[in-house]
Amino acid sequence: MDDRERKPYTYRIWGLSAVVVLIFLILSFNLWRLQIAQGSYYSAMAKGNVMKLVKVPPTRGDIVDRNGKLLVTSVPEFVVHLNWMDLQQAKGNAWKDVVQRLAVYVQPEWPNANQTVESIAEDIFANIQNHQWERYRPVIILDEISPELQAVIAEHQEELPGVSVDAIPVRSYPETNLLGQLLGYVREISDPEITQFNKNTDAQEAGFEYAQGDLVGKMGVEKSYDFWLRGKEGVQQVEVDNNARPVSKQIIQDAKAGKTVQLTLDADLQKTVDDTLDQVILDIQKKNPAAHAGAAVVMDVNTGKILAMTSRPAMDPNDLIGIISEQMADKYWPQDPKRASEAASLNRALTGLYPPGSTFKMVTAMSALQLKLTTPYEQIDDRLTSLGGRGAQQQGIEEWGGNYFGLVNLYRAMAKSSNIYFEIMGRRVFDSNPEMIGQIAREFGLGIESGIDLPGEAKGISPSAEWKKTYFTNINENARKSRDEALAKIESDYAPKLEQAADETNRQLVQKEKDTEIKKINDLYKLRTLEPLEWQGYDSYNNSIGQGYNAYTPLQLANYVATIVNGGKHYRPFVVEKLLDPITGETVQQYEPKVLNTVSVSPEVLDQVKQAMRAVTTGEGTANWLFADVPEFTGGGKTGTAQIGSKDTISGEIYNGVFVAFAPYDNPQIAFAGVVEFGGHGGETAGYVAKAAFMEYFGWKNTNGG
Questions:
Q1: What burial letters (b/e) apply to 598-634, b meaning 16+ CB within 10 Å?
Q2: Which long-range contacts (CB under 8 A, 24 or more apart) does 396-403 make?
Q3: Does residue 626 register a pLDDT over 70?
Q4: How far apart are the C-alpha atoms of 652 and 91, rounded to whole Å?
Q5: Is 549 helix (H, G, I), strand (E, B) or coil?
Q6: Residue 253, Cβ neighbours under 10 Å: how many?
Q7: Region 36-57: what's the mean pLDDT?
């Protein structure tokens, strides 16, 4: 190749070399500018980057029944997430426009259909504001979104920075209202709850602290076993710059799923109890539309394990996931005080306090027999005159239904549910030892907290002479303070009015108004403190037949019966049997039965009372018909027709149906207690629930093959 042919290539090589040199000169200049000329500035910027550790929520553990049937789980659900950190990529106030656009897209599926776009946007802003304490964690804006909304958000993704559709584990209750109140539900922790949850001994031992943003159980098993169900959170490291914008994200610790909680309860038995109680309430509503509530408990008499626990109205925890509509909130937590008893969130088996009615008569019998104030065979004439003189007769309660049962001993009195017999025995006991009946009741678990592994248990009232004195002393003191404050206010309000009266006539009119107000306050004070502090004869009579101040939960009534028939061992009831590893299924922790106390009542007396309970379901007993078509049934029970209010009042004509029972007789295995509000006679209402429970548990059939 000659010089003329080589010359174009030479020019090209020189040109390319010049470009390369120029590029290196530019790179060198920029390197010098970044590292030397502006090195201090960029060094400061880099130091301004902050590493944040963000919690990665684990999958919450399952809850299963004693046979492994799934009752609660976590399922993937598509939700609209708003990531505050990514949202800040929008320039200036553009992030507000993002929220406005998002409100338009989610409006068709927003829980409150009547809300405007502007109102929805405000709700989203408020949600963001509520999570300012942790700006690097996505906020759920809307859950359970449809495929159509997913497509809309995907289509407009570019104009919605920070908004995403993600599949997250959400709590699911596949059996809907089965065990609703007992299982509970899950929502974000509130500020007052943080301190409460951090007192959990398991959490303290593990060094775990609850904080804002945590999802926790709000009631039931979800709450009491929250630490075990919640699992172990993962950790994500997020690097953000000085403007709180993300630079990088990295998972440094994986989340671990929560433990599987296995209950002592039997789902099939539970459904039988639920369905039967529902049917009983429906039947009562035909005559009394106000009837809507009830509760029942079935427990193992030899361990304290709860086998079934029903409360009506029913609760479906699925209703309380995500945003709760006003209508749904009113169903579970009515704002009207007159409708407070209708709250579907109330576990009446655990927190409902009811007068036990005649189901309390076993306590009166045990007290009289233990003090040797009677024998099982002593006969009492079933007449009001048997209470004593005219004063005693006036304070006593006549026989129910206008009946006269003639001569009755313990067994016949229990069978016929004689009021007169037990009033006489109760009066004897109180005259001999005013605290005896209250003491015996508490030994059997009545009027005390059982320590069950569920939150919100009610204590109840087991009255005695000392209790009454303390109770009414406190009431009188509070009433006196209220009276004094009200009188002082009247003086303060009327002083200027009297001073400014135009003449003596007007002054007398104002003084008359003042005197009227004072009289009202004093009359109210007298009404509130009318009850004498000392124990009265009528207190003995009322208390002996389960009326008066007596108030117990269905759980306590079931445990009381269990203690009678298991030989006097008062167990702590419990609903969780074990914790299981979610991967291997191996038992992590086993919960064992615990005897709280052994009663002071002798085995001989316990057996006598047990025989008396058998008389209720046989022969001439008030529930002799209930199990007549179930040949395999052996056991005992007690009916109760509990008056809600005082005699001669509106509620004094309303009765709850109460029933307690056990089976079989020779080797008792389970005990039952049930209450049907406005149910009347316990055998005809709650008794049907007991019958269905026993037939399901033991596999018994009636003579019709049912």
A1: ebebeeebbebbbebbbbbbbeebbbeebbeebeebb
A2: 396/420, 396/423, 396/537, 396/538, 396/541, 397/423, 397/541, 397/542, 397/545, 397/547, 400/641
A3: yes
A4: 70
A5: coil
A6: 14
A7: 56
Query: How far is CA 234 from its chain centroid?
Result: 30
pTM of the full predicted structure? 0.82
Q: Per-residue pLDDT tens for 416-436? A: 999 999 999 999 999 999 999
Task: State the pairing for strand pair 50-56/63-64.
Answer: unpaired
The answer on pLDDT for 704 being more than 90 is: no
- Cα Rg, the chain, nearest whole Å: 36
Token output for 234: 């993962």
Report long-range pairs for 194-200 (Cβ below 8 Å, ≥24 apart).
197/226, 200/226, 200/227
Examine the pLDDT at 135 and tell me if it is beyond 70.
no
pLDDT of residue 45: 46
How far is the C-alpha of 224 from the C-alpha of 600, rounded, in Å?
A: 32
Residue 474's Cβ-side half-sphere holds a number of Cα atoms within 13 Å equal to: 5
Q: Residue 520 to residues 198, 472, 507, 516, 524: CA-CA distances in angstroms? A: 48, 21, 20, 6, 6
Provide the strand spans (E) within 480-544. Answer: none
Tell me the two tokens of residue 25: 């000169």
Position 395 pLDDT exceeds 80: yes
d(C-alpha 461, C-alpha 616), whole Å: 26
* pLDDT, tens digit, 9 for 90 and up, residues 457-486: 999 999 988 998 898 888 888 888 888 989
pLDDT at res. 39:
52
Helix ranges restricted to H, 33-93: 39-48, 84-87
Closest CA to 106 of 76, 145, 155: 145
What are the DSSP E strand ranges found in 282-382? 294-300, 306-312, 380-381
For the chain, what is the largest distance between any 2 Cα atoms, rounded to a whole number of angstroms?
149
Residues 379 and 399: their CA atoms lie apart, in Å, by 16
Question: What would the pLDDT profile of 260-318 be if each residue is shown by its tens digit?
Answer: 999 999 999 999 999 999 999 999 999 888 889 999 999 999 999 999 999 999 999 99
Q: In this structure, what DSSP letter does residue 649 have?
A: S
pLDDT of residue 88: 63
Strands (E), 538-619: 569-571, 576-580, 587-590, 595-598
